[in-house]
Every structure is written in structure tokens, then in C-alpha cells.
Amino acid sequence: MKTLRQAILAVVIFAVLLLVFFAIYATVRNRPQDLPWTRLDLGQPIGAFTGRKLAGLTDNFAECRALLQSAGVRYTILPTVKSGERCGYVDGLRFAPGGAQRIGFSPARLGVSCPVAAGLAMWEWNVLQPAAQKHFGARVERVEHLGSYSCRRLYGRSAGDWSEHATADAIDVAGFRLSDGTHISVLGDWDKGGEKAAFLREVRTGGCKLFSTVLSPDYNAAHRDHLHLDQATRGEMGWRACR
Keywords in UniProt for this one (predicted)? Predict the structure, then answer.
């Protein structure tokens, strides 16, 4: 019993010291986004807990909308969708023109859950545009996608866990169109090497800091033609997937 108490005490002390370290580190570097207890700011650079805070917005539509507004993102709220016991959403929205979010989507009129929209906006500002400038000296103008909401289970199975698409908490990205006319396709360019492949891997890995799950052709054949990005809610310290 004494050994167990000592082990628990050691864990508690370690946790406290870790929190103190984070607080000092974030204060010295002026990076409040690296602290788990600070309010999320979509306009700040990506921090150590940004991805977890974005996923945590699933249960707070009002806060998610407020964060988008504060960051200058314009949007329209979508009507609630309810289909069966497990499908549908109450936090759907669509980007509107004229705000801080500039990239278009093809097909147009994409509807996603608010946490996915917040992640996409930060992905644009912090990952997509810097990567496009680095590799091509151009801007991403359009994201090509395979959709968001779809009432289905994982990988189209007839039984088992439901996909995050069933609640619009996921989007499948198939390619990109740049301002200089360059077209980049996950299916066509992932394994070809060169700047296009490097760009795709960079935006995949950058997305892992913002989305709960990021799956690419490196994961399995079902993702050979797209990057799956979702905001699955697994708790503040839950596991995250990046492949």
C-alpha cells in the first residue's frame, strides 16, 4: 500500500512540474496557445494544444462560431440534419466569401461541422499557403474534395463503428489548384516524387497538428486518392492519428 501511495504521489508531482514547465515556457516565449487552459485563438500560430482544443469545439457550437467570427471568417449556418439514430449534425456551416478564409472548394457549397471549418481555416493560413509558397511560389486557390457529410460506417461497412462523415466531422481532400495553374492530385502525385509529392506530404503532416485524425495513401488503399481529415472527439488527452 505504501508503494502504491508513493507511486501516485510521484505521478502527481510529475504532473504539477510538467504544468509549471508549460506555463513558464509559454510565458517566456509569449505563446499562450501552448497552454492547455488558455482560450483558443484561430488567428494565432498553431500551438501545442491547438488540435485538441479544435476537437473540443464539437460540444460547443456557440464558442466555435465566436472563434470563427473573431478570426474574421464569414460563414452561413446550415439547417440541422437528422437521419436515423447516429447520423446528422446540429453544428453545420458553410464558408461565405469576403472574410479571412480565402480558399475556395470544389465542388462548391461545401458544408462541414464547425470544428472542421475552424481546422480548415487554420490549415489554410498556417500550412497550405506557406507550403504552396515554399514549393511553387504560388498560392492555393482551390481545394478539391470528395465531400464531408455521409451517413455511413467506417469504410462503407454494414456494421461496426460509424464514420466521422456521419456527423459532418470529416472531409476528404483529393487535390489542390494553385494560383499559377498548377494542379496537384493525391491520386496522381503522391508517389511520383518531386515538389508535388513533397507538398502533399507537408500539408498532410501539418494537418496532423489541427485535426484529430489525418489519413493519407500511406495508411491504406482506401485512402489512395484523398487525405481524410476529421475532428473526432476523444477527450482532451485522447489519442490522435496521423498516417
Answer: Membrane, Transmembrane, Transmembrane helix
